[in-house]
Design goal:
Layout lengths: L6 E4 L3 E5 L5 H8 L2 H7 L6 H13 L3 E8 H4 L10 E8 L8 E4 L6 H4 L3 E7 L3 H9 L3 E6 L4 E7 L2 H8 L3 E4 H17 L9
Parallel strand pairs: 5-6
Antiparallel strand pairs: 1-2, 1-9, 2-3, 3-4, 4-5, 6-8, 7-8
Helix pairs in contact: 1-3
Length: 199
């Protein structure tokens, strides 16, 4: 989504960054897992199809995708961003009649910038672990479709939820943060150890 193409969300333990071409190889390796494909109701894609998908997601007006990075690993300028990846968050604006409603794949953020008032999660009925996780986050059952074998859970974003979600999360400009890390990585690689002289 163009709206988050330069947005970095900085939390206590994770950093959310826009999904870029740099992330595609690792994301593609994750999505090659049959178990993960089943849990996310995804079809296997070639690497080139994954790159096409990433480009289309960046242009979509109704899908906001963030890559979740381990903040502690990402703080090390010597770490490649791809190596810090731990997951992703997708927010779908699914109802043009109700632009404040979003479908959520993973519960993290997006509330302030997008003006979201409700989150919905659609989960396969066999995915007991995800259903339990979303219910732990106070999502309520909205409907069950036996035809599609999925449950729809919903959470209304009130002031308490907004505070819980955004807590210590801060928003920064992604490009300048990434450029700063790259400059730090170059400085680390260019550092020449100084030998100590013995007396």
């Amino acid at each position: 989504m163009r709206l988050n193409e330069n947005t970095l969300l900085d939390g206590e333990d994770v950093v959310l960054v826009p999904y870029t071409a740099e992330h595609v190889p690792r994301y593609h390796r994750w999505m090659a897992s049959p178990d993960l494909q089943k849990l996310t109701a995804s079809e296997p894609l070639t690497l080139e199809q994954e790159y096409d998908m990433q480009r289309s997601w960046r242009q979509d007006d109704d899908k906001c995708t963030f890559i979740i990075l381990d903040k502690h690993a990402w703080a090390d300028p010597a770490s490649r961003e791809e190596d810090c990846m731990v997951g992703d968050v997708n927010i779908f604006l699914t109802d043009p009649q109700e632009p404040s409603l979003a479908e959520l794949e993973i519960m993290i953020a997006g509330v302030a910038k997008l003006g979201i008032r409700k989150f919905q999660a659609k989960i396969g009925l066999d995915n007991i672990i995800s259903i339990a996780m979303f219910k732990k986050f106070h999502f309520q059952e909205l409907s069950v479709s036996e035809v599609f074998r999925e449950i729809t859970l919903e959470m209304t974003v009130d002031d308490d939820v907004r505070t819980t979600l955004l807590g210590t999360l801060t928003e920064e400009e992604y490009e300048s943060s990434r450029d700063g890390r790259r400059a730090g990585r170059r400085a680390v690689s260019e550092t020449v150890p100084v030998s100590q002289h013995q007396d």
